[in-house]
Amino acid sequence: MDKQKNTINPPKNKCQIKEEVSYHRNGKLNSKILYVNGKKHGVSTYWWKEGPKWVKEIWNKGKEHGLKTKWYESGQKYSEEMWIDGKLHGAQTYWWRNGRKQMELHFFQDRELSRIFFDKEGGVTEINFPSQPTPPSAAKTKTTLKTISKPTELYTTTNA
Hints:
Layout: E1 2-8, E2 17-23, E3 29-36, E4 39-40, E5 42-47, E6 53-60, E7 63-64, E8 66-71, E9 77-84, E10 87-95, E11 101-108, E12 111-118, E13 124-128, E14 141-145, E15 155-159
Antiparallel strand pairs: 1-2, 2-3, 3-4, 3-5, 5-6, 6-7, 6-8, 8-9, 9-10, 10-11, 11-12, 12-13, 14-15
């Protein structure tokens, strides 16, 4: 893998910006990563050997921050996850190669709250609620399961 670095060297006490670009042996783009003062910052993108995009992620001062998306080599979306200040937060979703949802996880400040599995036709096969401490903001929330008629109607939340 060949790397090409473009560095802007500002005067002392200023930020240093570097874009690192690498290529696969076949000459196609492998990655583009932006650094500010030696830490990943901004959009980083990676590509499969044959050209399609593989990963797009957003960084803020060396920590993942924003939507991270991955794709299969075919270009079909594989996963999405939300990061805030280096921690998983919100929904993390994976898809089967046929485009249907495979798994959905929910996080609160890097703690997994729930995990839902789907079969290749989109039906729910399993729902898990890992045994972890309840986040302070969710302490007054009660989650109840109900009969599932559609994959989008997994549970309801009511205030306790």
